[in-house]
Design goal:
Elements lengths: L11 H15 L6 H10 L1 H15 L6 H16 L2 E2 L4 E2 L3 E2 L7 E2 L2 E3 L3 E3 L4 E3 L9 E3 L4 E2 L4 E3 L3 E2 L4 E2 L4 E2 L7 E4 L4 E5 L1
Parallel strand pairs: 1-4, 2-5, 3-6, 4-7, 5-8, 6-9, 7-10, 8-11, 9-12, 10-13, 12-14
Antiparallel strand pairs: 14-15
């Protein structure tokens, strides 16, 4: 039997539970059966995150997993009008309340990352080396863009419509075009 563990080594159910916990935290509530059902059936943001978790699980099925993953990825992109690249590493605890216009290229997303609508994470050009790293507990506000092989520190906050072209330290707040650091904890 194939293990349905994620890139972080946690199982599928444990990873989805981390996602549910983060959604509950942002709604100032706890995870109950009713909450989980509402998230799965009625909340597009959670559905988008769950679709990614299913995609990761499909990839672990021998022989047919990778083609199934590609089909599922295509269907998810078409259904939600948003994309998380197949090569993106997504840690447990992903919060995307409004999955519209999001384009996340190959990068690494740490645990408990919040991403709002119209966020872009990508490279400067097609032959750029490396990829972005988004730290644990980072918050990417609506319309922000992370461009290049840069690091967003743990607990950092990126302001709405900011264009980040340089590393952002842990706990810092970056705003503007191009983004500049306005506060750090």
């Amino acid at each position: 039997m194939t293990s349905l563990s994620t890139a972080s080594g946690r199982g599928f159910i444990a990873t989805v539970r981390c996602d549910l916990d983060l959604f509950a935290h942002h709604e100032s509530t706890t995870v109950t059966m009713g909450f989980a059902v509402r998230m799965i059936l009625l909340t597009q943001g959670f559905q988008f995150v769950l679709a990614r978790r299913i995609q990761d699980a499909l990839a672990r099925i021998p022989i047919v997993g990778r083609p199934l993953r590609r089909i599922w990825w295509w269907w998810t992109c078409r259904s939600f009008g948003a994309e998380i690249a197949i090569g993106c590493t997504v840690s447990p605890g992903l919060y995307i309340p409004h999955p519209y216009g999001i384009v996340i290229g190959v990068c690494t997303l740490g645990e408990n990352v919040a991403i709002l609508q119209n966020v872009t994470i990508g490279s400067r050009h097609s032959h750029s080396p490396g990829h972005a790293r988004i730290g644990r507990d980072a918050y990417l506000s609506a319309g922000s863009a992370i461009i290049g092989a840069i690091s967003i520190g743990e607990g950092a906050m990126i302001g709405a419509n900011a264009v980040v072209l340089r590393d952002v330290p842990n706990g810092a707040v970056a705003v503007g075009v191009p983004a500049r650091i306005v506060a750090a904890s």
